[in-house]
Amino acid sequence: MTPFFPDVPKIEYGGPKSKNPLEFKWYNPDEVVGDKSMKEQLRFSVVYWHTFCNNLSDPFGVGTALRPWDDGSSSVANAQRRVRVAFEFFEKLGVPFYAFHDRDVAPEGRTIKESHANLDEVVKVLKDEQARTKVKLLWGTANLFSNPRYMHGAATSPNFDVFAFAAAQVKKAMEVTMDLGGAGYTFWGGREGYSTLLNTDMKREMDHLGQFLTMAVNYKKQIGFQGQFYIEPKPREPTKHQYDSDAAACLNFLRTYNLLPHFKLNLETNHATLAGHEMMHEMEVAIGAGALGSIDANTGDPLLGWDTDQFPTSVYLTTQCMLCILNMGGFTTGGVNFDAKVRRESFEPIDLFHAHIGGMDAFARGLKTAQAILGDGRLADFLKSRYESWDAEPGRRVEAGQSSFSDLEAYILPKGDASRNVSGRQEMLENLINEFL
């Protein structure tokens, strides 16, 4: 078969001194970092939507992307050809996983029955290409936000028929994900929120969303799907407020509807920024609840207040991400998924390789830096010493739920006052991190 990227060889590791833009400088998949290879630690995944379906249009202009393999049609044949393009890309880049929405890989039909049939035809090619390349599906999902029927939301729509349509669409997407051996399934509430509370019964909409996800859990058990369920937080855009606004809101929602045992979070850096958080904050919130499952690797532009989905290049950012992941023991289900797109001005096919190579190198450096920081021990030692007063008997009793206000009053009265605080040493710790960069 004629290659779709004839001028691009398989991307190899060239080392930090390489000047070849089509070589990895830091990502060496077989290099062991900690107790696993880089490939196992990072579990890189390429997204289907931004990489192969995004024409790089924006609100001010039509698409600029040059994609010679795409005839611009919504035919099944064009979708099947795009699958072969994607897997040549995955194979040359050397990633073990990919992720998709149902409407990325197959065109929507005039009816849901026709849409199901289109998806089935494309899945045949996906299965063939997975078998040929050994690239696996990290997670699948359903696009419940692009079609005008979802203008008021999907699971939170005031129109019951839309709710039912969304359920049927998710049912099929779950079946396809299972058929393809997907390691997980993600729910992203693109329009599950509101633009004004004047026309919104928030309690009722959230109850409907809780019922929708409960039905998904029940169907997962019914079909025997073993993959992990994820929810991906985002505070706004396209709605003013989305119900899955950040990690804490998602966890609260899951606890309210008794869904926490069935879900983990898939966190994205750019969404954390829109929520007014750092990615490390969102990750620590999820880790504290035992609910961090996977991450979408991207970043935003600090001068633009919207979801730019740029490729990550900051080693400081990737080091923070990998410190969190290594501290929790590494991934067990998810991975580092590049939910990122090239810039509108980077319109040639080769730019897709440059962008992913840079992101993979940034995370490889972050992984090695984080492992070195953990091996050094000073950061962990400082954190332990900062809370050492809690390790004595009175503190341990409080943490175990075995103390009362009266007990604490009896403890502090003889002292007369609290002991003197010690410095948080923020600047010293920031300097420590910079030692490794």
TrEMBL record:
Keyword Protein transport: no
Keyword Cytoplasm among UniProt keywords: yes
GO CC annotations, alphabetized: cytoplasm
Compartments reported by the entry: Cytoplasm
Keywords, comma-separated and alphabetical: Carbohydrate metabolism, Cytoplasm, Isomerase, Magnesium, Metal-binding, Xylose metabolism
This enzyme's EC code(s): 5.3.1.5
Any single biological process term in GO: D-xylose metabolic process
Subunit structure: Homotetramer.
Entry similarity comment: Belongs to the xylose isomerase family.
HAMAP family: Xylose_isom_A
Protein name (Swiss-Prot/TrEMBL): Xylose isomerase
Species name: Aquisphaera giovannonii
Gene designation: xylA_1
